[in-house]
Design a protein that fits this description.
The chain is 22% helix and 35% strand. By secondary structure, it is of the alpha+beta class. It is globular and about 35 Å long.
Length: 168
């Protein structure tokens, strides 16, 4: 190889060596973004690198209703307050609202939402939990946090109290 060819090939060889070394180091360890700690302390990966949704149980009129919280900052902050027993008041014959012990995080939350029957949401302007038993239009400040099983809205329509617990 001529000296000129060697001078031209040297930067490319150095770059290839650096890229190969970085790739080998990264391949031996899982990405921190895709790890989560399990209750036993071992790491497990989720496809998105986020924590999974939280299963909860609602007790309405003596009936246990399964529900799931989504993986948002607002839902995680709500889950941290559980268990809760809340008094409900009717709003527009479509939802039951309940005052929460404290405001929730709205980091990364949408401007508003079009809640569906069975949805659980945080209404940021009032700092309340909104639980929907009827169809409601889009409203600014509504942040969806979860959804209850099909039988929940029927029970919710006549409820004046709700108990919410995390399910392991």
């Amino acid at each position: 190889m001529t000296p000129t060819a060697l001078v031209r090939a040297l930067p490319a060889a150095a770059l290839l060596l650096a890229v190969t070394a970085c790739t080998q180091d990264d391949a031996s360890q899982p990405s921190r973004a895709t790890q989560q700690e399990t209750p036993t302390g071992s790491a497990s990966a989720t496809p998105s690198g986020r924590t999974p949704a939280v299963n909860i149980r609602l007790t309405i009129n003596g009936h246990h209703i399964a529900a799931t919280l989504n993986d948002s900052a607002t839902a995680r902050d709500f889950a941290a307050q559980l268990p809760l027993t809340l008094s409900l008041r009717d709003f527009n014959q479509t939802e039951k609202a309940a005052d929460l012990p404290r405001e929730l995080s709205t980091s990364g939350a949408p401007e508003g939402a079009d809640p569906q029957v069975g949805d659980l949401a945080y209404y940021e302007p009032w700092g309340t939990l909104a639980t929907y038993y009827g169809d409601a239009p889009y409203h600014s400040g509504v942040i969806p946090i979860g959804h209850m099983a099909d039988e929940g809205p029927e029970q919710l329509a006549t409820a004046d109290e709700i108990t919410i617990e995390a399910v392991s």
